[in-house]
Amino acid sequence: MDISKILPFLFINECVVCGKEGEGAICNDCKKSLFVKGRARTLMGNPLYFITTYRLKGEKLIKEIKRGRVSPIPYLIDESLKLIEHERIDIVVPVPSMGFLFSYIPEHLLLIGKGIARRLNIRYLPIIEKVKKVKSQTTLSTQERLRNPLGAFKLKMGAEKIIKDKRILIVDDVYTSGATMRECEREILNHGGSSLSLVISKTSLLS
């Protein structure tokens, strides 16, 4: 379902990446170059699915989404579902932002996470929370990024009963060093669950 056709007043009919008009929020040319889609492994050895890579147009897409341009979200949900269609998933869990003093789920991750859960008829549960102040990952070296999120995330009280023996899809926007995702994976593993991850974009730091 194309939300932009149902609620056109919420969406500008131009590509958020290149500005081309008349082909929706992501034009056909940008779709071809953006949606490279692939599978890798996280630092914990779990499946990591990505829609695009964080270079050129991928970086532009991420920046526009973070600025609040939600019109590409339906496309990203569709591409995500193509990637994970053969996986067993019980619950969708978003990663809290590292850039806030408190636990906060960015709007684009909320929309993507809820959209995927709705289409799969499973639960969306923001049960991972940020519990300590950390530096923004964008200002740090690779080694500093690996250490920075240590102990930054915890399951919310009572969530261990929900995730035990469940397979959790962890959703984030960018995967760089993998340290943030690692901490979320550990929390799930330590409380009896298993996980796979989905990100909009991975960077060149990940092979």
Span between termini: 34 Å
Question: Could you tell me the number of beta strands?
Answer: 8
Helix content: 25-40%
Q: Rounded to an integer, what's the Rg over CA atoms?
A: 17 Å
Strand order of the largest sheet: 1-2-8-7-3-4
Polypeptide structure, described:
The chain has 207 residues and is α/β, with parallel strands linked by helices. It has one domain (36-202): Rossmann fold, CATH 3.40.50. The chain is built from eight helices and eight strands. The protein has helices spanning 3-6, 28-34, 57-66, 73-84, 107-120, 142-147, 159-163, 179-190; strands at 38-41, 47-53, 91-94, 123-124, 128-130, 153-155, 167-175, 194-202. A six-stranded mixed beta sheet has the order 1-2-8-7-3-4. α8 links the parallel β7 and β8 (194-202). α4 (73-84) crosses α5. The model is unreliable at 3-9 (pLDDT under 50).
What's the layout of helices and strands?
Elements: H1 3-6, H2 28-34, E1 38-41, E2 47-53, H3 57-66, H4 73-84, E3 91-94, H5 107-120, E4 123-124, E5 128-130, H6 142-147, E6 153-155, H7 159-163, E7 167-175, H8 179-190, E8 194-202
Helix pairs in contact: 4-5
Features:
207 residues; alpha/beta; Rossmann fold; six-stranded mixed beta sheet; two-stranded antiparallel ribbon; 8 strands; globular
